[in-house]
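Appendix B. One record, verbatim.
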Amino acid sequence: PRSPSAQAVKATPNIPPATDAFDNTVTLADLGITNTIVLHGADASRTIRFSLPQTQVVKTATMHLRYHFSPALLPSISHLKISLNGTLLATIPVTTPPATDTAPIEANTTRKENGSLQEMTLTLPPETLARTNDLAFEFVGHSTTKCEDPSNSALWTHVDNTSTIEFA
């Protein structure tokens, strides 16, 4: 005769580990952005629409953003906002690294450090993701504190289409 515990063990099938896990990395280029996103002017925006498969539930999502700010932007009043489905994820300020020399900065001097490639990692809250998503970039740029031309060619930021989003 078999013991009841032996029968219970036999009645329980071997459950394999979950194989439904996934790990996808897509670039903005994979989402259809063929070139660098150029946001030009005092107030410019661009929205990227993308879909997620219905067979996948995202538990974690991370964006590795690669961007450039115009060297002419004023750090105190210029920034880039990133939103997902209407939820603000981050406001990235224009920053000026510490000066390497002690010479005073003149009013018309260009800050070259802002023109370099910058990177930032953002966590995308999985609860904000849906089957169809809108990833929005909004640029607010100023090169002077006085009256300025909103179409000034010095007012820009770029978001590289090599930026990636990782879903798991």
